[in-house]
Amino acid sequence: MNPEPFLQLDRVIHEKGRLPIMSLLAANTELSFTEIRDTLKMTDGNLSMHLKTLQEAGYVAVTKSYQNRRPLTTCSLTAAGRRAFASYIDLLEQIVRQTKTT
């Protein structure tokens, strides 16, 4: 088995807490912080840290606004985030194919 694809996995996405965030955002145009938190059953602090890492990598855009006079934080994948996630999925598929042929 060739270990090279494993070494190419994007560590920002591959982390246990960030992969589900990226997956959720890839399936939706935009989600609120609360929707992500509740869907993934994460704490506010844990989700905030993962979003910060994804935002610093340029994968996630975080927008703060108000709705009915209440703060609203929404998140979406950037174009770079969509490309990175698609590449990540392609690499996983390559690893699966490689595993099936051995």
Key words describing this protein structure:
three-stranded antiparallel β-sheet, 102 residues, elongated
Question: Concise description?
Answer:
The chain has 102 residues and is an alpha+beta fold. Helices cover 62% and strands 18% of the residues. The mean pLDDT is 94.
| Spatial shape | elongated
Strand residue content: 15-25%
Helix content: 55-70%
Give unreliable regions as ranges: none
CATH class: Mainly Alpha
Terminal CA distance reads 7 Å
> What is the name of the CATH architecture?
Orthogonal Bundle
Molecular structure report:
The mean pLDDT is 94. This protein has a single domain (4-92), classed as Orthogonal Bundle (Arc Repressor Mutant, subunit A). Helices cover 62% and strands 18% of the residues. It has helices at 4-8, 11-14, 18-27, 33-40, 44-56, 79-101; strands at residues 31-32, 60-67, 70-77. The radius of gyration is 15 Å and the shape is elongated. It is α+β, with helices and mostly antiparallel strands and 102 residues long. It has six helices and three strands; from the N terminus they run αααβααββα. A three-stranded antiparallel sheet has the order 1-3-2.
